[in-house]
């Protein structure tokens, strides 16, 4: 019988070694690596400082709230028509959270009862130092205000000793930083409950408009 000789298979070990590719990385001396790390740290620190400075110096809206509210006088008249005379004394607190002073040209406060405006008062010009607060006192006298539809509610509130008032406080001015000035305007509405027995604020709910 004739048998075919076995043909040995060629080894691929050498071919595999020839197909392999190598990446040769440059070897940096320690001094170069230290300079690279120092540069990256400086860039990162600079960006963080810029972010903190921008956050700190960016102008913010001042906080406005009614610090004190006193019902000095209330008189109900029935002739020639049903009306009410009210004298209110209130103090508005203006808080400046920025790192520079706030100069406001006007501060307006409107007072209402159960959605009906009684009147308003304006305070001209004021300065609030950086990270400080300023208190603005105002006295409002309303004579002959007709609230016939809400007279029953007012009598009930007076008998309970707590009267809810609506206040809208608006301030306009500017914030000063070195030679720069940023325009400022803020408006806050509050529902203030006044205890008529000891003339204190029971609670107030405020929101920014």
What do you see in this structure?
The protein has a 5-stranded antiparallel β-sheet. It has helices at 13-19, 30-57, 151-160; strands at residues 63-77, 83-95, 102-113, 116-128, 133-145, 162-177, 180-195, 200-208. The mean pLDDT is 78. The protein is 22% helix and 51% strand. It has 2 domains: 29-58; 63-208, Immunoglobulin-like. It is elongated, with a radius of gyration of 37 Å. The protein has 209 residues and is an alpha+beta fold. It is a single-pass membrane protein.
Q: How does the SSE layout of this entry go?
A:
Elements: H1 13-19, H2 30-57, E1 63-77, E2 83-95, E3 102-113, E4 116-128, E5 133-145, H3 151-160, E6 162-177, E7 180-195, E8 200-208
Antiparallel strand pairs: 1-2, 2-5, 3-4, 3-6, 6-7, 7-8
What sequence of helices (H) and strands (E) makes up the elements?
HHEEEEEHEEE
How many strand elements? 8
- Alpha-carbon Rg, integer: 37 Å
**Quaternary form:** single chain
Kindly provide the name of the CATH class of the largest domain.
Mainly Beta
Major β-sheet strand ordering? 4-3-6-7-8
Per DSSP, the total helix count is: 3
Distance between the termini: 107 Å
Number of domains: 2
Main beta sheet = 5 strands, antiparallel
| Low-confidence regions | none
Strand residue content: over 45%
Mean pLDDT: 78
CATH topology of the largest domain: Immunoglobulin-like
Give the overall shape, derived from the CA principal axes.
Answer: elongated
Q: What is the annotated CATH architecture of the largest domain?
A: Sandwich
Which structural class do you get from the secondary structure elements? alpha+beta
